Amino acid sequence: MYNKLTLGGMEQDIKEWYVDYPQLKGYLMEHTCHGDKIIIPGCGKSLLAEDMAKDGFTDIWAFDYVQDCVDFLNERLAQEENSLPSGCNLSYSLGDSSNMDNLEDSSIDVVLDKGLLDAVVTGKSQLLAQTYVYALQQ
Ligand SMILES: C[S@@+](CC[C@H](N)C(=O)[O-])C[C@H]1O[C@@H](n2cnc3c(N)ncnc32)[C@H](O)[C@@H]1O
Fold first, then answer.
1. Cα(93)–Cα(47) distance, integer angstroms
2. I need a surface site. Which of 13, 42, 114, 138 has the fewest CB within 10 A?
3. Does residue 41's CB lie within 6 angstroms of at least one atom of ligand 1?
């Protein structure tokens, strides 16, 4: 599905893969807490993290290995910052799911993967998928 957004004065169509926050909300309310430390690997240009933050989730880090996605979301964050609840810790950065060695063990409560694992599994390397899943288990 596509969201129409205005960013830097320009209207853009941004792809949200599979489902959006309203569709996921019931599941997230059932299985997570608002204060959980949540990571969203392979965030693309998805507004999922932003919508979750606006709805009360307080600690979200989303990353992608494509610089353009991270730049887009950081620009969007700067534009939307005043709409986020105070004390909310939402950040976007460049990151590669096949190398998450710098994450401390048991430091994450929830991994919200929407479209990354299947992209990796259907790609060339099964090893990359295994490395990613192994890292998440830590
Ligand atoms: C199918 S898109 C899903 C995007 C977003 N999660 C959504 O639901 O709209 C997959 C995303 O994973 C990212 N990606 C693929 N391999 C990655 C990796 N090893 N590390 C980080 N991001 C990766 C791609 O750049 C792309 O943005």
1. 14
2. 13
3. yes
List the one residue out of 97, 128, 91, 125 whose CA is nearest residue 113. 97
Q: What is the Å distance from ligand 1's center to 37 Cα?
A: 20
Establish whether residue 60 lines the binding site of ligand 1, counting it when its CB lies within 6 angstroms of any ligand atom.
no
In this predicted model, what pLDDT tens digit does every residue of 77-118 receive, in sequence order?
999 999 999 999 999 999 998 888 888 888 999 999 999 988
List CB contacts of 115: < 8 A, sequence separation 6 or more: 17, 18, 42, 44
Instruction: Give, using CA atoms, the residue closest to atom 2 of ligand 1.
Output: 115
* Residue with CA at minimum distance from ligand 1 atom 27: 44
Q: Domains in the chain and their CATH numbers?
A: 2-137 (3.40.50.150)
**Single-letter amino acid code for the residue at 95:** G
Among 14, 65, 126, name the best residue to mutate to test ligand 1's pocket (greatest count of ligand atoms within 8 A of Cβ). Answer: 65
